[in-house]
Amino acid sequence: MEPQGTPPSRAPGPHFLLLVLLLAPSPATPQRLPLDPGGGALGGAVPEYAHSVRLDGDIVLGGLFPVHARGDRGAPCGELKKEKGIHRLEAMMFAIDLINKDPDLLPNVTLGARVLDTCSRDTYALEQSLTFVQALIEKDGSDVRCANGDPPVFAKPDKIVGVIGASASSVSIMVANILRLFKIPQISYASTAPELSDNTRYDFFSRVVPPDSYQAQAMMDIVTAMGWNYVSTLASEGNYGESGVEAFVQISRETGGVCIAQSLKIPREPRPGEFDKIIRRLLETSNARAVIMFANEDDIRRVLDAARRNNQTGHFLWVGSDSWGSKISPVIGQERVAEGAITILPKRASVDAFDRYFRSRSLSNNRRNVWFAEFWEENFNCKLGMHGKRPGSPKKCTGLEKVGRDSSYEQEGKVQFVIDAVYAMAHALHRMHRQRCHGNPGFCQDMADNIDGKELLSHIRAVSFNALMYIQTTTLTVSLSLSASVSLGLLYMPKVYVILLHPEQNVPKRKRSFKAIVTAAAMSGKLGQKGGDRPNGEVKTELCDSMETNTSSTKTTYVSYNNHAI
Question: What's this model's pTM, rounded to 2 decimal places?
Answer without folding.
Answer: 0.72
